[in-house]
Amino acid sequence: MAYYRRIRDLREDHDLTQRQLAAILHMPQPQYNRYEQGLRDIPTVTLVQLADLYKTSTDYLLNRTDDPAPPKSL
């Protein structure tokens, strides 16, 4: 469950509040807060949005790799 910490750290590294990020993702702030706390699973669509926003991979967000670089296109 360490990926919840990773999405929080990325948000903070980009100087965004939960309210700002929730607005970017078109959701209420309490809903996003539950993702960061690990109270709800993050939907795939939201994971992809976060990966695009942070210019990283979903594998990095899910803590499956420590390489934040997005995958290279084929």
Short structural summary:
This is Transcriptional regulator. It comes from Faecalibacterium langellae. The chain is mostly helical and 74 residues long.
Task: Please explain how this structure is put together.
57% of the residues lie in helices and 0% in strands. The protein is an all-alpha fold. The chain is globular, with a radius of gyration of 12 Å. The relative contact order is 0.16. The mean pLDDT is 91.
Shape field: globular
Number of DSSP-assigned strands:
0
Helix/sheet category? mainly alpha
Helix content: 55-70%
Strand content: under 5%
Note the gap between the termini. 30 Å
Compute the number of helices: 5
Largest sheet: none
Low-confidence stretches: none
Round the mean pLDDT to the nearest integer and report it.
91
What letter string, H or E per element, gives the SSE order? HHHHH
Radius of gyration, in Å, reads 12 Å
